[in-house]
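hey m, so remember when u said the tokens were messed up on ur end? i reran from scratch. heres the input so u can diff it against urs
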Amino acid sequence: MKVSNEYLIPFAGLKLGKHQFKFQINNKFFEAFEFDEYISSNIEATVVFEKKNTLLELKFSHNGTVNLLCDLTSEEFSLPIKGKINLVVQFGDEFNNDNEELLIIPHGEHQLDVSQYIYEMIVLSVPLKRVHPGVLDGSLKSEVLEKLQKLSIKEEEEENKIEPIWDKLKQLLTDK
């Protein structure tokens, strides 16, 4: 993974207080992580960086759209996404990122790479099941959807059909 230096925040020269950083995210960003599930993306990520005497607080947020394929129909669609995460950075003897909300970096560090946190925030804001909005509201017409609807009707009919063996078992309960 090779992400450019534009996602490095040099905090050593910053004054105490809040600082805001904005990043424009597109597919070039995801290529650095070898992630190719999005056809295209246009996302604005914001990091509110608060420098305090003994620690750093970061509030990540993003808002934008990703174009991807529907899991049901393989049709391309644009999905609006947004999300937030928080991160506290403390200084310690050695690097430790075991906790997702707490990062410990060595005392001598003077900059912080936020690319991994932006990547995780965006990827986790996209639902696991990606369904075209036209499927949900019934406006999308597709051969795949028509085939799925034909198959689902047959499944419902089979579920409604009661097998005779169950009728016999129910009769045993009522015969007592």
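this time it looks ok to me. The first strand starts at residue 8 and ends at 10. if urs says something different then somethings off w ur setup not the seq
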